[in-house]
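[audit] Reproducing an earlier prediction to check determinism. Same input, same settings, fresh worker. If the tokens differ from the archived copy the diff job will pick it up downstream; this log only records the rerun itself.
[audit] input (133 residues):
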Amino acid sequence: MFGDYTWNVVEKESECLAERFKAVSRNIANANTPGYARHNVSFEDQMRKVMEDDKKLHMAVTDEQHIPSHPLKISDVYAQDNKIIDERYRLDRNNVDPEREMAVLSETRMMYSGFMRIAANKLAILKSVISGR
């Protein structure tokens, strides 16, 4: 299944969502820690650029002084962990809002579940092809 675009997207999205799970769980665990700054994991913008990159025309580099214009790959996407320091939720400088974190956790869980369904459907198709149906 290596080289399959859908499978590669599902794999990268799952990897990045796992990083978001870790960040949200750290945030929830430190909800009562004075001075703790919450973490936010983002990767969706990078993935959007990769998916829209197929529509762009890439130039060939014919001289070493040219600026490279290579297409982005799914492997170039990474989970960017941002520490949010400019927000305050409580007087002790802790900015973790438990309700927000639970909402992010629910959203992440739904996205992860959706991608696992896509992977299961992809595997079911491959299984039926292999079995000759």
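[audit] rerun output stored. Observation attached for the diff report: The radius of gyration is 20 Å.
[audit] end
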